[in-house]
Design a protein that fits this description.
The chain is 29% helix and 27% strand. It has two domains: 3-94, no CATH class; 98-207, Sandwich (Immunoglobulin-like). The longest helix is centred in the middle third of the chain and has 24 residues, at 70-93. A hairpin with a 7-residue loop joins β1 (102-107) and β2 (115-123). The chain has 214 residues and is an alpha+beta fold.
């Protein structure tokens, strides 16, 4: 078995006579095995990738015969994943740049232990809303949480869904309507069997006191 075959086998199974330190291979296997690696990024991330590719000419020198095996393919794939992860992290890091755009979120009588904060900011496509919550249990099977922004006239617009059944992490939602006109932020518990309207199971609320124009 060639060295390239041994490395490819180790990436696939975690066991092989590689004959060298496995630290780099373990790092690659960890990236490939993480659910977050394969999660669908927000739309803004895809736009950023396209913009980067459009503005940068990519050249690749010819590879010798030893680099054309599965090991080279694995490295190329991991390189792409690392680049994608960088773009995702870059997008999420934007969310904590303006400490003035933060509103407290509190639980309702349905979830009195829930609390947290919502941070928000403008993008070219609308507004991002980043939730950090504690004390809110995972949504039961067959249900999910849904974020909303509401106007003072009682009009609500969905800004995305989540369920909290995985690792705890910030929840990034997206609004296509101006938050100055929809300053209330709600989280509801929804059933998968129901329609798109907001349920009356409101579990968290917050209100933006003064939203700057985008």
């Amino acid at each position: 078995m060639t060295t390239e075959d041994s490395r490819a086998q180790y990436l696939a199974t975690g066991s092989s006579d590689v004959g060298e330190s496995n630290e780099r291979l373990d790092l690659i296997r960890g990236v490939l095995g993480s659910e977050a690696t394969w999660a669908e990024p927000p739309p803004q991330v895809g736009d950023g990738i396209l913009a980067s590719l459009a503005g940068e000419a990519i050249s690749q020198p010819p590879a010798d015969e030893a680099r054309t095996g599965r090991w080279a393919v694995a490295l190329a794939a991991v390189g792409g994943l690392v680049a994608l992860a960088g773009l995702v992290l870059g997008t999420i890091s934007v969310v904590k740049t303006d400490q003035d755009n933060i509103v407290a979120m509190s639980g309702t009588e349905l979830e009195t232990a829930a609390s947290g904060e919502a941070e928000f900011g403008p993008t070219d496509a609308g507004w991002w809303v980043r939730l950090e919550v504690t004390g809110l249990p995972p949504a039961p099977e067959g249900s999910y949480y849904q974020g909303w922004v509401w106007s003072d006239d009682g009009e609500g617009v969905s800004i995305g869904t989540f369920h909290l059944r995985g690792d705890e992490m910030p929840i990034v939602l997206w609004s296509g309507v101006p938050l100055a006109d929809y300053p209330s932020i709600w989280v509801t518990l929804e059933s998968e069997a129901d329609g798109p309207e907001a349920s009356d199971q409101i579990v968290m609320k917050g209100r933006i006191p003064d939203v700057p124009e985008a």
